[in-house]
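Sample intake sheet
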Amino acid sequence: MSTYSVVVVGMGKRGMHHAAAFQDNPSFEVAGICDIDEGRLVEAKEQLGGSVETSTDAAALTAALKPDVFCFCTMPHLRKAFVDIAIENGVKLVAFEKPVADSSTAGKELKAAIDASGIKAVVSHQHRYGPHYTKVKEIVASGALGTIHTIYASTPGWMMHMMTHMIDYMCWYNDYAPAEWAMAQAAGRSKLSDNHPSPDYIGGFIQFANGVRGVVETGAGAPDIPEVAKWWGRNRIRVMGDDGFAEVLTNGGWRSVTASGGLQSGEGAMDYAHDMVPYVQEIADWLDDDAKVHSCSFDRAFMGFEAMMAMCRSALEGGQVALPLETGADEINALREQLGEKAALLGSPEHAAEFGMA
């Protein structure tokens, strides 16, 4: 078994989740960490222990250490520069946070760089490893729901935080059938100034090549799931077929109704400590064997990213937007310039505080 060296950039909450998970896996050694906040570096080094190098300069640290894996957990507009650092230093695999990018232009540039270099790339859609998510996958794959016709996903979290999570798991449950088109509407401007810039609410449709219809809504207008305590965990993905349905709630377990099984349910909640373990192990497996492509591979994430950007374009231009996208655009800036001033209407009073409406 090989041991792979890792550099992690961005030592906030998610960066520490990644660094700790790499450090706990015998296939990896965290060689270096980076953050522009020196206080974070000191704290992270104390937690990680060992001989980990620290720096506020990601390029210099990576050039000095030449790691096998380059992981970065930064804001959505910071993608291409870090991937370029990885490619320039001969890294074998790059891992980063969702979403893929903050525009389809940036996303296409990123994809071109990754494809040309041959570097392996992974995007952190790690909720899928929760037992409640995998249980729904098992039910769908078993055929117990009959012919699948609709997959619905909702989250009160705004688009750049949560939509690619929702679409990625939708695609997973649909065996990654290609998307053919998307259509959407959007409302509300307050989160366009957020560090994950988004319309306050966006909802619409995705048509898949196998005939399955995806329905997605994220943000202020999304419905509440009051039985789930954690606001950021009030996310639903429901797979509907001719013979029943199965759904997962991010912090509320799973449930299903089928013709043969009646109503069934089980526990489950997002747990970084649990979910990061198989996510990191799959990175080791892919590095060891090219055939063991990571479940969260960049190519899979890019499918969901393009669908999200197509929904943004539809909200701007009206009508359906064909997929895959033929050209790039700067969808977020276009939303800033063109989205109307009318505020989003809430799907629940519970959402008011997060959208400055309390």
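Comment: The CA atoms of residues 205 and 267 lie 29 Å apart. The two ends are 54 Å apart (CA to CA).
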